[in-house]
Amino acid sequence: MFNLFRTATPILLGIDISPASVKLLELKKTNNSYRVESFGVAPLPPNTIIEKVVKDPRALARTVQQLIAKVKPTAKNAAIAIPDSMVITKVIQLDASLNEMDIENQIAIEAEKYIPYPLQEINLDFSVLGPSNKDKQQIDVLLAAARTENIMATVEALTEADLTVKVVDVQAYTMERASHLLKPQLPNYGQNKIVAIVDLGAHTTQLTILDNFKTVYSREEPFGGQQLTENIQQRYGLTASEAGLAKKQGGLPDDYQTAILHPFRETIILQLRRALQFFFSASQYNEVHAIVLAGGSAKVMGLAKLIEEQLGIPTTVANPLAEMSLSANIDHTTLLSESCSLLICCGLAMRSFNHG
Ligand SMILES: Nc1ncnc2c1ncn2[C@@H]1O[C@H](COP(=O)(O)OP(=O)(O)OP(=O)(O)O)[C@@H](O)[C@H]1O
Ligand SMILES: [Mg+2]
């Protein structure tokens, strides 16, 4: 078994690997509050990861090595996340009298029924959810399986950078764990319990809907800030890095707002509107009380305000570090400006203290 869920945990570095970048975060917990011990982000060379598959493990290893050399984290163990689409999950019922060992054996047998790959090609894990609603003599057990070949390239690249991958988590679970950090910033927290986290990354948008901090819906769209960068590149004849920089720092011609920025924001709003409608039609829910925008593209100028106005739902930009203290040797300005894109990293680093 691969410990997707359980682990004897030393401090773990949360390492969020996307096709665009590697982000690293190390947390310490004292008296119920967190402290950021180390943090860093490094861009990945193009084509290192294509369609979620690591194509160039050496390039990934080099980037992680350089990041580690720069950030100098204390921990040598890491937690990584894999996209939901790479994981097959299934809730099964088992006899409540089984002990952990029996459950493990039973799981291996049950997995063969549900997982369409040979057992030797998958990493398998489970989490006991509690007594089953269907039958009081049974427990619900969440089974999760991922193909080993989809994980190994990443594990090997991190090993080359002298890290040991101790935990492989699923992005949706990581997001749910990190969502607890957002409580203080939620409008009317306590009354408004259905919250949508919209993670606008470089290439993907992940919509996670939580009911009282339990995930009830999670969906990924292949759309992100990279689209805005490409639009800027095309219109003004810039390179990718020039366009990426201009998007953050400004200095583009006067027509940027009307020709590029407004249409991009409108596209996001349209997609979000559709995604929410899809969620309502696919579930028993018909409202969302608050939206939290996350991911680097949450910083697109005026986006949160526009979503709030057009969708009529209170919207804030995620700051999972709001209640954390920061170690002195960290570049505070960079960390705080990146905090909206650190939910996955936080959720991973929190695995050091929280086994669920
Ligand atoms: N100030 C800013 N204004 C607009 N866009 C920004 C700003 N800062 C970062 N971005 C954009 O945010 C995106 C990166 O966000 P993030 O780090 O969340 O993505 P990622 O996790 O690497 O990718 P993904 O989650 O899509 O796999 C890039 O497209 C970047 O250009
Ligand atoms: Mg991301």
Which ions and ligands are bound to the chains? Answer: adenosine-5'-triphosphate, magnesium ion
Poorly predicted runs of 5 or more residues: none
Q: Write down the overall mean pLDDT.
A: 92
The main sheet comes to: 6 strands, mixed
CATH architecture of the largest domain: 2-Layer Sandwich
For the largest beta sheet, what order do the strands appear in spatially?
10-6-1-2-3-16
Task: Bin the helical content.
Answer: 25-40%
Strand content: 25-35%
Write the layout of secondary structure elements.
Blueprint: E1 12-17, E2 21-30, E3 33-43, E4 49-50, E5 53-54, H1 57-71, E6 77-82, E7 87-95, H2 100-114, E8 122-131, E9 138-147, H3 148-160, E10 164-170, H4 171-179, E11 194-200, E12 205-211, E13 214-221, H5 225-236, H6 240-249, H7 256-282, E14 290-294, H8 303-311, E15 315-317, E16 325-326, H9 332-338, H10 343-349
Helix pairs in contact: 1-3, 4-10, 5-6, 5-7
The structure holds adenosine-5'-triphosphate and magnesium ion.
